[in-house]
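#lab-general

N.A. 3:47 PM
ok so I finally got the sequence cleaned up, no stray characters, all 154 residues accounted for. can someone with queue access submit it? mine expired

B.Y. 3:52 PM
send it over

N.A. 3:53 PM
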Amino acid sequence: MTNNDVLRSIRYLLNVNDAKLAEVFALGGADVSAERVESFLKHEADDAYLACDDRTMALFLDGLVYLKRGKDPARPPPPMELPITNNIVLKKLRVAFELKDEDLLAIIAAAGFSIGKPELSAFFRKADHKHYRPCGDQFLRNFLKGLTFRFRRG
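B.Y. 4:20 PM
back already:
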């Protein structure tokens, strides 16, 4: 998925406006205005569309973690992982929403997608691990859909 697609999905999930998304960016250390957020959220065919680069997306995901879990001033910020992959997005969402394996499996099932625990754990391994598996766009899209079901419907 593109960074812009992920932003659109998370905005819908959180049910927030552009100004609030700009605040999430700021929590992560990015200086992004509400107008720029609006450009990120536009359709690719729109003249005002602006692609969200990996660095900005990484800062947004860190800001999301800080929004949902709080920021410990005693701890240094996590190292930036670039380029942003679907696996990194999945990891950051897992941390932000404090999801356990059972939660992840339930969320995925709610979206009509089936996966086993070993397959799921492969997404969270380091890229050089022999059992690492890249997270596909379809899986991440379904995960975001299931996460939206869970948090927007109670």
